[in-house]
């Protein structure tokens, strides 16, 4: 799991709309990675819509934003189309990136334990280092808080 001031773990993942995103290829840009549990669930939908609505503001501030879950590209494409999401979604179907970022965790829901993605966001600076981490994210107000942090860089 990366810590603040450490280099963010590199990856190459497929992205909605086709192609791949290679994190190292984004050096020189601010990058926001928001990890979310599953496509088309209430919190994940609200978060995806929120980042999509503010995507232009993030771009104006010099940041590239990506959502990451373990869902397949087919599920991502359906999710993005259904909710008119403009934020690019990356598929970590093999789970390597969620493990590298320490967001694949044991969860406890109504006494039942299972493994899943902890909602978390990583702000990566232009040199590729982790600048800020939000863990156990609550969706309400989160997008605005991340945008404020990006503008402060």
From TrEMBL:
This is thioredoxin-dependent peroxiredoxin. The active site is at residue 44. One of its GO terms (biological process) is cellular response to oxidative stress. It is an enzyme of class 1 (oxidoreductase). Keywords: Antioxidant, Disulfide bond, Oxidoreductase, Peroxidase, Redox-active center. GO terms for molecular function: thioredoxin peroxidase activity. Thiol-specific peroxidase that catalyzes the reduction of hydrogen peroxide and organic hydroperoxides to water and alcohols, respectively. Plays a role in cell protection against oxidative stress by detoxifying peroxides and as sensor of hydrogen peroxide-mediated signaling events. It catalyses: a hydroperoxide + [thioredoxin]-dithiol = an alcohol + [thioredoxin]-disulfide + H2O. Residues 2-153 form the Thioredoxin domain. InterPro entries: AhpC/TSA, Peroxiredoxin_AhpC-typ, Peroxiredoxin_BCP/PrxQ, Thioredoxin-like_sf, Thioredoxin_domain. Pfam families: AhpC-TSA. It comes from the Bacteria. Its EC number is 1.11.1.24. Monomer. GO terms for cellular component: cytoplasm. The keyword rRNA-binding does not apply. It comes from Sulfitobacter brevis. Belongs to the peroxiredoxin family. BCP/PrxQ subfamily.
């Amino acid at each position: 799991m990366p810590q603040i001031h450490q280099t963010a773990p590199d990856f190459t993942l497929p992205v909605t709309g086709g192609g791949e995103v290679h994190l190292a290829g984004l050096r020189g840009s601010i990058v926001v990675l928001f990890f979310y549990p599953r496509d088309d669930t209430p919190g994940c939908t609200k978060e995806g819509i929120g980042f999509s609505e503010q995507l232009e503001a993030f771009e104006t501030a010099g940041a590239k934003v990506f959502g990451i879950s373990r869902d397949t590209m087919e599920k991502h494409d359906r999710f993005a189309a259904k909710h008119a999401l403009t934020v690019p979604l990356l598929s970590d179907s093999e789970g390597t990136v969620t493990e590298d970022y320490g967001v694949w965790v044991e969860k406890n829901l109504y006494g039942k334990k299972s493994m899943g993605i902890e909602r978390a966001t990583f702000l990566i600076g232009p040199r590729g280092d982790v600048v800020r981490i939000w863990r156990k994210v609550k969706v309400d107000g989160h997008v605005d808080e991340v945008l404020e942090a990006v503008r402060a860089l």
